[in-house]
Specification:
CATH topology of the largest domain: Tetracycline Repressor, domain 2
Largest sheet: none
Shape: globular
CATH class of the largest domain: Mainly Alpha
Number of helices: 9
Structural class: mainly alpha
Amino acid sequence: MPAPPNTAYHHGDLRRAVLRAALEVIASEGVAAISLRDLARRAEVSHAAPAHHFKDKAGLLTAIAIEGFDLLAAAVDAVPADAPHRLRELGAGYVEFALGHPAHFEVMFQPRLLHAASPDLAAAKDRAYAALRADVEDLPDASRIPDARRAGLAAWSLAHGFATLRLSGSAPELDPDPVATFRSLVAPQIP
């Protein structure tokens, strides 16, 4: 079936329209519900049209993961270098990213669903991890951390675990704002 006139496809935005539809499906129904044919229907284009941009489902999910890692890198970079309790704020930024982009977050850390050998995916991961790693290594007291990589992994695990528990509905609501809860768990507020 040809695409109806005046659709996003004819305006050169098919890729974005399919990504947007995929993110909506993942957020509401989970990644298992993704089908290129269904996404084409939602974008009002032929069932083969998404394959021109993504080739297959793994290609689409890889594009979502790349976008997610780029968004994560931007979230980490947005934390001011001179922020008090910088490591806590980086974790809070990570949690805020995850809660604000749950569909990206669901896809990003599932390599079996992706084209794991994609150079673009590797580059996006490297950008995000480099930002996180540099921030741990650049802490003023980093010289007291015997292994900054282990400290970074511990900090990342805490933020990732908290975000995952919140998104799954498994973490109790201690505060109306989950990012505030994360901050209070990591470093209690000092008067």
